[in-house]
Amino acid sequence: MSGSSDGVEWLEESTFDVGYCVTFARGLSAVELLRRMGCDVATAAMKSPIDANHWIEDIADELGHQAVADREWVIRAGEADGWAFAVEDGGVRGIDSEVLAAVSAGTVAMSTYRSINAENLFIYAEFGSLLCGFDTPLDRWGDEPDRLVPQLIQAGLLLPDGADPDRGIGEEQRLTQRMMHTEFGVTLPRADVEHGELLTAMY
């Protein structure tokens, strides 16, 4: 994998034209993360972004649509700095509450999401519980919506009194992703994600 200095906030300058969802889970392997996300790990293979995005279509062309009739899309996964990560190009599986709860069983998990319409979402989970999620830092929800307030203040997403610093949506997304790196140590190897091959599975 690439160096740990990549962080996460480079996603805002990435090549994901139709949005992205990236999910992290501490201490899991890439295979286990894909399995917990409901993917078919038995047929997982190393794929580049282009090959992954055409995988289901290629199988359908070769073997017929029935061969992939129940498959919706693909997720690419890897590992970096003690975390597994799962990348969805235009997908939303990582922000499904049941999926992220399953991913976080016995560990910590989080997802960062941006839609094609620039809608943002961050969700943090521990041991099967969704503790804190938000589209903007003031609009928090979850079993413990204030759990990450100290981290949000440290990241500049909230003022010391808990008020909104009135930042733009894009800046909020960058600061949220910077917080993920500085406060929790997650990183997303840019060269591997954008150009390399990662373990890919269908769901």
Categorize the overall geometry: globular
- Unreliable segments of 5+ consecutive residues: none
The topology string of helices and strands comes to EHEHEEHEEEEHHHE
- Beta content comes to 25-35%
Radius of gyration: 17 Å
Percent of residues in helices comes to: 25-40%
Major sheet summary line = 9 strands, antiparallel
Total domain units: 1
Give the mean pLDDT.
92
Count every beta strand, where a strand is a DSSP E run of 2 or more residues. Answer: 9
- What class, by secondary structure content? alpha+beta
Within the largest sheet, what's the order of strands?
Answer: 2-9-3-4-1-5-6-7-8
Q: Ends: how far apart?
A: 24 Å
Question: What can you see in these coordinates?
Answer:
- The structure is a single chain.
- The chain is α+β, with helices and mostly antiparallel strands.
- The protein is built from six helices and nine strands; from the N terminus they run E-H-E-H-E-E-H-E-E-E-E-H-H-H-E.
- It has helices at 30-36, 49-63, 97-103, 149-154, 169-184, 190-194; strands spanning 19-26, 40-47, 74-80, 83-89, 108-115, 120-126, 129-134, 140-141, 198-202.
- A nine-stranded antiparallel sheet has the order 2-9-3-4-1-5-6-7-8, with helices on both faces.
- The longest helix has 16 residues, at 169-184.
- The protein is globular, with a radius of gyration of 17 Å.
- The mean pLDDT is 92.
Summarize the structure.
The protein has 203 residues and is an alpha+beta fold. It has one domain. Helix content is 28%, strand content 29%.
